[in-house]
Amino acid sequence: MAEEKTILLTQAAYDKLKEELDRRQGEYRDEITERIAAARAEGDLSENGGYQAAREEQGKNEGRINELIVKLRNSQILKAPKSGKVGNGSLVTLTIAGNDMVYVLGSRDLAVATEYDVISPESPIGAAILGAKEGDTVSYKAPNGKDISVTVKEAKPLK
Predict the structure, then answer these.
(1) Whole-model pTM?
(2) Residues in domain Transcription elongation factor GreA/GreB N-terminal (predicted)?
């Protein structure tokens, strides 16, 4: 069995995932069950597209429920570093090729609780900026092999 990785989440992201899990285990599961029962009552299941679609949706929902259970079980609420230093949960303003861009550094699961794009700390750019301070210029190797310089203009905890 593969080792399960700790997922760092903000409290807001954790709450959103928990809310989704509760909805999927409750009202959405009940809604799918009702559609299956209604389609089953129509008769011949082999030719019943509504029944097949509802069963497929049920499988997808149960898969997502299992995924959410594992994520929440393996999650840890992150403590973002203080302003000025880049870490998991930092809201960073980066200057790349003369353009300022704002990102959150952390797992893609943070995206449920923020309107910002998320950079993984395992990505080349994420690994380069992790631990950097405001004003630092770091570089990383792009997939095309070019070195790209990035300046950390601002780093603050994601609220």
Answers:
(1) 0.74
(2) 7-77
